[in-house]
Amino acid sequence: MTPVTSFEGKHAAVFGLGGSGFVTAQALAAGGARVSVWDDNEHAREKARAAGLRIENLAVADWRNFDSLVLSPGVPLTHPSPHWTVPKARQAGVEIIGDIELFCRERRQIAPASTFVAITGTNGKSTTTALAAHLFRSFGFPVEVGGNIGTPILALPPPAQERVHVVECSSFQIDLAPSLNPSAGVLLNVTPDHLDRHGTMENYAAIKARLVEKSDLAVIGIDDDISSAIADEVSKAGKRVIRISVTKTVVEDGITLDGTCLLRFAGGRSTPVADLAGIASLRGKHNGQNAAAAVAALGPLGLDLERVAKGLRSFPGLPHRLEEVGQKGKVLFVNDSKATNADAAEKALLSFDKVFWIIGGRAKEGGIEPLRPLFGKVVKAYLIGEASELFARTIGDSFPYECCGSLEAAVPAAARDAFASELKEPVVLLSPACASFDQFPDFEKRGDRFRELVKALLVNRKAG
After folding, report:
1. How many CB atoms lie within 10 A of CB 382?
2. For residues 55 and 46, what is the distance between their CA atoms, to the nearest angstrom?
3. Core-most of 3, 152, 162, 347, by most CB within 10 Å?
4. Is residue 258 within 8 Å of residue 272, measured between CB atoms?
5. Three-state DSSP class for 300?
6. Does domain 5-97 correspond to CATH entry 3.40.50.800?
7. d(CA 82, CA 8)
8. What span, in angstroms and rounded, lies between the C-alpha atoms of 342 and 361?
9. Helix (H, G, I), strand (E, B) or coil at 69
10. Of 264, 277, 289, which is closest to residue 313 (Cα–Cα)?
11. Would you identify the CATH topology of the domain 323-463?
């Protein structure tokens, strides 16, 4: 845990006692702050009370007594409407922040020169976070990984000169971290997402940009127009920017992908960094962008090409991100449950030639219409969840599809057709292009279930 000693003697109100909120309250208390916590869920309040935290109903509290309101990232700050705690805090002149901001303040106080890599982007940030951490470890550093990727940032050991923190940041977390200033900030891409929470693309993009605006080193993808414009603005402000791309030639300081090879551009010259061919965990152009970003985030360490290449080759990948969960004969089963929108599913479709595609869930805005140019890669689709009817209309007669309803029906159906096909390398791909919340609590549970079904199917097929 990181005790928030910078809040010693202050009075913080904490709303939201889920995973990160609960840890935040404990970290504040451990640092000497007076903490009042509240959650609308009675079970969450009981858990906090059992842990010795002070429960105070913030709906009737005197807000003039608080120095800060610390919100959990899942609590709306602006859209679709501010949570009821927000106007109360603003009327009393109380700052509204989150756990990332608390970490940043603690770092400035106890270890301002420590390595802090913060990573964001609409897609790819979890893989990039895990890969950057893996590369730093390959250089022998003690590395802590957390934030939006799973472990709350304040649950990690505190910043220290010899310790590296690699942290994934969502737009919700960035919005609550006004002084976010990593030693290396990474912005991978910006495409439409979470507009229900940010109102407009302009607001969403501006929040994403904050992560790199104050970073010592800004690593920015330039394959989408919004991120490219952010790179230009950050550069004009005098920050060092390393541009990364998988579709463009980078003529300035940057890293690009030429086929499967990462190339570093500097001083008008290009230098091969590493070849990603044959690294299953970094399959596809999108992972070329992730790898380029992770290498760039190493700073001067990234110039040790032999160690970088070795680190990339040993990266095991992440669950639910193009995860190869089984193979029988010629048929490969791939779990890409993390693909919760069309942009993420596009990356999976681009990574394979012919797929038996399991899709569906709770549809995002735009559905799968943006994927139409890749429909030729689909041998057949297997529709699950709420989006089945919508996706069936979009598909039309572009390729065959089967309405399966559930993963339990879709996996054996897709496997049956893949095994019966005459394709050289058929792939059964779960890349839903949807949120999971109609049938599963999160994409992890959806991916876990897919993995279970595949393993059972392969065992039964072997037995048969």
Report:
1. 28
2. 9
3. 152
4. no
5. helix
6. no
7. 28
8. 12
9. strand
10. 277
11. Protein-Tyrosine Phosphatase; Chain A (3.90.190)
- In this prediction, residue 249 carries a pLDDT of 83
| The predicted structure's pLDDT at residue 395 | 98
- Is 148 one of the annotated active-site residues of the chain? yes
Out of 125, 286, 338, 377, the active site residue is 125
Query: Which amino acid is located at 306 in the chain?
Result: E
- Rounded CA-CA distance 149/164 in Å is 16
Of 10, 11, 194, 445, which is the active-site residue?
194
> Of these residues, 123, 148, 287, 341, which one is catalytic?
148
Output the CA torsion sign for 456, 459, 461, 464: negative
The residue type of 112 is: P
Q: How much is the pLDDT for 453?
A: 98
Long-range contacts of 57-64 (CB under 8 A, 24+ apart): 58/13, 58/15, 58/85, 58/88, 59/84, 61/13, 61/36, 63/13, 63/88, 63/89, 63/91, 63/92, 63/94, 64/92
Which residue bears the tokens 């800004």? Answer: 218
- Distance in angstroms (rounded) separating the CA atoms of residues 137 and 237: 32
DSSP string, 120-137: E-SSSHHHHHHHHHHHHH
At which residue do the structure tokens 């209309």 appear?
393
Alpha helix positions (H), 69-122: 85-91, 99-110
pLDDT under 70 in the chain at which residues? 193-195, 462-464
Determine the Cα–Cα distance for residues 104 and 174; give it in Å rounded to an integer: 11
287 included as an active-site residue: no
CA–CA gap between residue 45 and residue 32 (Å, rounded): 21
Among candidate residues 36, 33, 83, 35, the one with its CA nearest the CA of residue 56: 36
How far apart are the C-alpha atoms of 356 and 367, rounded to whole Å? 19
Q: Where in the chain is the domain with CATH 3.40.50.720?
A: 5-97
- Helix (H/G/I), strand (E/B), else coil: 31: coil
Dig out the tokens for 420 from the structure: 């019966």
User: What's the CA gap between 109 and 300, in Å, rounded?
Assistant: 25
CATH number of 103-313: 3.40.1190.10
Residue reference for tokens 């193009």: 322
395 three-class SS: helix
State how far the Cα of 305 lies from the Cα of 303, in Å rounded to an integer: 5
Pairwise CA distance, residues 380 & 387, whole Å: 16
What pLDDT score was predicted for residue 115? 98
Residues of the chain within CATH 3.40.1190.10 domain(s) are 103-313
**CA–CA distance, 294 with 290 (Å, rounded to integer):** 6
- What's the Cα-to-Cα distance from 117 to each of 85, 136, 159, 166, 314, rounded to whole Å? 31, 11, 12, 5, 21
Q: Annotated catalytic, 320?
A: no
Q: Name the segment(s) of the chain with CATH classification 3.90.190.20.
A: 323-463
